[in-house]
Design a protein that fits this description.
alpha+beta; Phosphorylase Kinase, domain 1; Transferase(Phosphotransferase), domain 1; 11 strands; about 40% helix; disordered C terminus; Prot_kinase_dom
Amino acid sequence: MAAQNNAPLPDGLEIAGYRIVKKIASGGFSIVYLAYDEDGNAVAVKEYLPSSLALRQPGELVPAISPENLPTFRIGLKCFFEEGRALAKISHPNVVSVTNFFRANETVYMVMGYESGRSLQDHILRRRDKGEKPLVSERFIRKMFSHVMNGLREVHTNKLLHLDLKPANIYLRVDGTPILLDFGAARQTLKADMPKLYPMYTPGFAAPELYVKNGNLGPWTDIYSIGASMFACMVGAPPQPADQRKVNDKMDGHFSKLEGVYSSDLIKVIRWSLMLDPLERPQSVFALQKALREPLQEQQEDARLQQVTRKLKNLFSGIGRKPGNVATTIQEHTR
């Protein structure tokens, strides 16, 4: 089924103790509403409704789903529901607050805290339209992304990945502090020829391992997207998509234009985050945060040691070497 426009729930509808006020956002995967709970508190209600799989006509509540799309719809619904359960366990000022999730109208809904503000993408575009120079200050980038990474560290601690980090999914409160929104873990599609789920991605912000089957996903995958988002703050557009970079990488030219506008240290940190090889990137959000605060050379030396260790673990996985042999090899590689 081709993507189509789904009709939102009608304003004023009462559903599971929430009164829908209006639609505030929509995309190919879901519709988000402003609503009020029974105590009169404003909340955001996110409805799972992938436009490529389901169609809801105006005046209807239950979407129509063809028999051939039903298995895929149900898999995505389960992922969406599980994502809500996982996020509900996280309590952090820089991560969206999920307070409830429920089933209704043969789909699933996620209830989140409602915040006034705008997305980082809107902030960037407004400054670009005004001709601001620099587009976003280095101080803003360092401070704001420090908060973003605090939230992301908490996400990773809970064994979750975001997988769709980009300025559109970073929401700025009125006081300027950011919140991570719209996790991509549930944005998955079923390949017609294989019973396996693959994550969707946003070109430019997605790491190269998201483009391939069985890509080695980890914290480094979200770190690529952090680097891409910082780059977008500088130029007002995403970096060259990773698949194109593998064929003809033009990023050096883009970075050279930023010299003199932003510090060389910040540019180096972003270059490091955007390395095509996952092993060449920071391996943890903490390492990236540290690099923003301290000289980069020291951080890269620590990262190289981590890379050697990871490569050796992969090399000897399943071989059954004795611990002493592995230790000797690590020493040889780190001389």
